[in-house]
């Protein structure tokens, strides 16, 4: 049994310790913000923050995160008020949305460490892939969020069209549920 803290809540995963964190989050805790993209850490769609660092959750196992603190996109800000979330909307940096959680989490971790990160710093720290071509707008959004953080400015971007802000900001509890025995065994 793996014990860790997910989104400020203690969680016990009753899954094999070799299970990638991504699958524990998505399948057992119903935290589906981190996406499966490539499975080998290249795309960054599965990025979460572990102990303050942006980590690709497809590359770390439950055993490797024992006792650590994990933050997913669901807990970055319950009302989507994080400056990077606001800047992504303001810059029109959300295309299909599949890569968005990974970029937001990687950007949030970077800006927490260095709110003065410039374009070169951002490009080095966030090698995530956006297949839709929103990359330049995403970089601008991260820069804009850094400026907002430094000036303590709230951007107050409008919600994504067609999305009810109250529904999008729901607090999703992290509850680990064991898989049935036949799925745990190989």
Automatic annotation (TrEMBL):
UniProt-listed InterPro entries: 2Fe-2S-bd, 2Fe-2S-bd_dom_sf, 2Fe-2S_ferredoxin-like_sf, 2Fe-2S_ferredoxin-type, 2Fe2S_fd_BS, Beta-grasp_dom_sf, Diverse_Oxidoreductases
Keyword Ribonucleoprotein: no
Occurrences of domain 2Fe-2S ferredoxin-type (ranges): 1-76
Keywords tagged on the record: 2Fe-2S, Iron, Iron-sulfur, Metal-binding, Oxidoreductase
GO molecular function, one term: 2 iron, 2 sulfur cluster binding
Region listing for Disordered, in residue ranges: 162-186
UniProt xrefs under PANTHER family: BLR6218 PROTEIN, OXIDOREDUCTASE WITH IRON-SULFUR SUBUNIT
Protein name: (2Fe-2S)-binding protein
